[in-house]
Amino acid sequence: MTQKIKTMELTFTRTIPASPVEVFDAWLDPKIACNVWHDAGTLIFEPKVDSLFYMNMIHKQDNKTVETPHYGLFTIVDRPNKIQHTWMSPYTRGLESIVTVTLQKKGKDTLFSLNHAGLPDDEFGRLHEQGWNSYVASLAEVFHPSVDKVAV
Fold first, then answer.
1. How would you list the strands of the sheet with 52-61, edge to edge?
2. With 70 as the cut, is the pLDDT of residue 143 above it?
């Protein structure tokens, strides 16, 4: 009998001082350091429906460079409103999770929302919270430097 893994979802929202088109384009541009695509050592990426992506994310851990493979399939690419793709990595424990980004015009700004559903409800799944928070903050920083800097 296969044991069912308990799952969870994470949602991150941010108002970004730019148009939905500008935010959409920045989120999918691997040349801009505000998205997961930028941190890939190897990147196979064409953001269109039914297109697979593969990236080998590079990060530091305990003073070592670590490479972690991630892959998925774009299921919705609706510029400038919505992006959806599957997401798998060692940190999803083999589960095919779903990342959905929605962008809504809010006056002169954009309400950016990222939802990651189907993550394992464990320490590996919860690692995505830190990662996505960092990327969403970086995206806001692209359009308004120091928007997230808070004096302590």
1. 7-16, 109-120, 97-106, 82-87, 64-78, 52-61, 40-44
2. yes
